[in-house]
Automatic annotation (TrEMBL), chain A:
Organism: Streptantibioticus silvisoli
HAMAP family reported in the protein's UniProt record: NDH1_NuoN_1
Record-annotated NADH:quinone oxidoreductase/Mrp antiporter transmembrane domain positions: 182-493
Reactions that this protein is recorded to catalyse: a quinone + NADH + 5 H(+)(in) = a quinol + NAD(+) + 4 H(+)(out)
Pfam families listed in its UniProt record: Proton_antipo_M
Bilayer topology term: Multi-pass membrane protein
Protein's name in the database: NADH-quinone oxidoreductase subunit N
Subcellular location(s) per record: Cell membrane; Endomembrane system; Membrane
Binding partners and assembly: NDH-1 is composed of 14 different subunits. Subunits NuoA, H, J, K, L, M, N constitute the membrane sector of the complex.
One of the GO biological process terms: ATP synthesis coupled electron transport
A GO CC annotation given for this chain: endomembrane system
Keyword Metal-binding applies: no
EC number: 7.1.1.-
TrEMBL record, chain B:
Classification of source organism: Bacteria, Bacillati, Actinomycetota, Actinomycetes, Kitasatosporales
Keyword field: Cell membrane, Membrane, NAD, Oxidoreductase, Quinone, Translocase, Transmembrane, Transmembrane helix, Transport
Superkingdom assignment: Bacteria
InterPro entries, alphabetized: NAD(P)H_OxRDtase_bac/plastid (IPR023043), NADH_UbQ/plastoQ_OxRdtase_su3 (IPR000440), NDAH_ubi_oxred_su3_sf (IPR038430)
Name of the protein in question: NADH-quinone oxidoreductase subunit A
NCBIfam families: PRK07928.1
GO molecular function ontology, one term from the record: NADH dehydrogenase (quinone) (non-electrogenic) activity
Length: 557, 119
């Protein structure tokens, strides 16, 4: 039998089975899932390019594939939003697994744009000095070579580069896009793993300070695995409580939300287990713990400074921005769609988490001497401010968090891109003492960094101010005035260390052996420029984007 | 008792094949004794003496283990599909082809990067 005959007989026997014996097949709306499918498909094409293209042409091919794929995914998101899937036609696709609604599309669009800017910083090859006649990026020549070994020297001399970072970035983006759209707990868990595993790998691939980078990756992996275990155990307990992993459903086929608010028709066996609130409380708490870990909220923040410091700086920027967007999206959906009936139980806990996150993030940042660790603690403090918006449990709470995430993520990407520019003989000069007098030496770079720091601090006319104002306003309207007061105090503490860095850059003498500022290619320049533009546009004229976030802020149930 | 007859027959066939193989091998196989034949089987690693701290293992073992996991996961999905191939219909066939295709991309990468060559 020839190959075509085999395929033909497979097809006919697959189609010819009597309907009665068929297992009902799922109905999947491919068009509505197209943004995610495009990104994952592009990642697969990237792996194929990695396998079959000669080494010389891989870099440009990967950059092209990544940019085209992300642009296509963004176009698909815009098309879906224009078709009304963000508002009136919002619904739950893929047999209840994935929601296609305003928050999902808004956050997916944000993540894709973040990834596009991050891909530019990944591809930057002008910053490191030319090694043996080859331009090199921020990633290890050969990940498997032992740091400092003859094999590594050989790889560097041969001009190897790890162009696999681009497919890895895309796989991570694919997972992050499903994460805030996941409408059942298993999809949530699978997408968490899909975006976490590439991130662990990317963290370990720094070209300079490789041991620190690998240490960061191992720490991130172990703590991430631990938090995944918490999440999974929580999912199991919630399943034990509700008899389903679906977020929402109908009275006859209830999701967890219906079981909690009592509108579900339960079988007697299930009615017995839903009487047990312990399963619900412990399970819900464990799932929220898993998400708070990814968000980097205190007391689950210990990994953040070490990982942010050790990872290659472009990866740190991507991780700090995109992971936070994805994880806050998932947290919002979980708290607003699944557990709104439990809000009198989780709100006090989240109050506490938000307060300690804001306060500890701001206070510990004051003592930092490394600019990457400083930005890590600043991201912890920002997670606290975002949690203040989450606690509001109101439409303005959702839209303010969506807006804040956009403002925060592009500023963060720009900030870490500036960090890659300030270098000395050992690579990036991240110690803050080396940044002294930077404003005298290269006023433009220092001024741009100052803009980002002012935005982090929440000074008016920057994106950070508009975001903080929206979040605190939503929290105050929901009656969380004490939280807002503490938030404002924490912002003031945080502003102290941001402004201290600015003062150090502009008003102290440059050190004689200070770092130099590398001239970037248009790739990093555009990443920084996008950060500045977003900071100023969202700061000066935030209304259009606040309206957009407001329109997108309704979850489908 | 009738229900268990096939199991007994299967057991008999298995035992018969094992005994047949062992006897045939000892009768027909060449016998060349050397040091390696006396050592414990350890997947190609010298079992003794171990270097201090366990020593470093070549990355080849790790690659082989990873490849095994990929094949293993593929089988986990292929096997139930093969059992109820008819009932899943055309949808199942198309989805399975897509799945095998994507897994194949990983193999193509491993093959082109020399992950399938031992030396």
């Amino acid at each position: 039998m020839s190959a075509t005959a085999v395929v033909h007989s497979l097809l006919t026997s697959a189609a010819a089975t009597p309907a009665a014996d068929r297992i009902p097949t799922p109905h999947i709306e491919y068009a509505q899932l197209s943004p995610v499918l495009i990104v994952l498909g592009t990642a697969t094409v990237g792996v194929l390019a990695e396998a079959f293209l000669p080494r010389r042409s891989r870099y440009w091919a990967q950059l092209g594939i990544t940019v085209v794929g992300l642009a296509a995914a963004f176009a698909a998101i815009i098309a879906l939003a224009a078709d009304g899937y963000a508002t009136t036609r919002a619904h739950i696709a893929a047999m209840g697994a994935v929601a296609v609604d305003g928050p999902a599309l808004f956050l997916q669009g944000t993540i894709v744009l973040i990834a596009l800017v991050a891909a530019f910083t990944f591809a930057e090859r002008r910053l490191d000095p030319v090694a043996h006649g080859n331009r090199v990026d921020s990633f290890a020549a050969q990940g498997s070579a032992v740091p400092g070994s003859p094999q590594e020297m050989k790889a560097v001399r041969a001009g190897f580069t790890t162009t696999e970072v681009f497919p890895l970035l895309l796989f991570a983006v694919g997972g992050m896009m499903i994460f805030p759209a996941a409408n059942d707990l298993l999809t949530l868990f699978v997408s968490l793993e899909v975006f976490s595993l590439p991130l662990y790998l990317l963290c370990a691939l720094a070209r300079r300070r490789r041991l620190m980078s690998q240490e960061a990756a191992v720490k991130y992996f172990l703590l991430g695995a631990f938090s995944s275990a918490f999440l999974l155990f929580g999912i199991a307990l919630l399943y034990g409580y509700a008899g389903t992993v679906a977020y929402t459903g109908t009275a006859t086929a209830p999701g967890i939300a219906q079981v909690i608010d009592g509108s579900a028709n339960l079988t007697p066996a299930l009615a017995n287990s839903t009487g047990n609130d312990a399963l619900l409380l412990i399970g819900g708490a464990m799932v929220i713990m898993g998400l708070l870990f990814k968000v980097g909220a205190v007391p689950f923040h210990q990994w953040t400074p070490d990982v942010y410091q050790g990872a290659p700086t472009p990866v740190t920027g991507f991780m700090a921005a995109a992971t936070k967007v994805a994880a806050f999206g998932a947290l919002l959906r979980l708290l607003y769609v699944v557990l709104p009936g439990m809000r009198w139980d989780w709100r006090p806990v989240m109050w506490g988490v938000a307060i300690v996150t804001m306060v500890i993030g701001a206070i510990v940042a004051v003592t930092q001497t490394d600019v990457k660790r400083l930005l890590a603690y600043s991201s912890i403090a920002h997670a606290g401010f975002l949690l203040a918006g989450v606690i509001a449990v109101s439409p303005s709470g959702v839209s303010s968090v969506l807006f804040y995430l956009v403002a925060y993520s592009f500023v963060t990407l720009g900030g870490f891109a500036v960090v890659t520019l300030v270098r000395d003989a050992g690579g990036e000069a991240t110690h803050l003492s080396k940044w002294a007098g930077l404003g005298r030496r290269s006023p433009l770079v220092a001024a741009v960094f100052a803009v980002f720091l002012l935005s982090f601090a929440g000074i008016p006319l920057t994106a950070g101010f508009a975001g903080k104002f929206a979040v605190f306003q939503a929290a105050a309207q929901a009656g969380a005035v004490p939280l807002v007061v503490i938030g404002v105090i924490a912002s003031a503490i945080a502003a102290f260390f941001y402004i201290r860095v600015i003062v150090m850059m502009f008003f102290s003498e440059p050190q004689p052996d200070g770092p130099t500022v590398a001239i970037p290619s248009p790739l990093t320049s555009s990443a920084i420029a996008i950060g500045v533009v977003v900071t100023l546009v969202l700061g000066v004229a935030p209304q259009y984007f606040l309206d957009l976030a407001g329109k997108a802020g309704v979850f489908v149930r | 008792m009738n229900a268990y007859a096939p199991i007994l027959v299967l057991g008999g066939l298995g035992a018969g094949f094992a005994i047949f193989s062992v006897i045939t091998a000892s009768l027909t196989g060449p016998k060349r004794y050397n040091r390696a034949k006396l050592e414990a089987y350890e997947c190609g690693i010298e079992p003794t003496p171990q270097p201090a701290g366990g020593g470093r293992f070549p990355i080849k073992y790790y690659l082989t283990a990873m490849l095994f996991i990929v094949f293993d996961i593929e089988i986990v999905f292929l096997y139930p599909w093969a059992v109820s191939f008819d009932a899943l219909g055309l949808f199942g066939l198309v989805e399975m082809l897509l799945f095998v295709l994507t897994v194949f991309v990983a193999y193509a990468y491993v093959w082109r990067r020399g992950g399938l060559e031992w030396d």
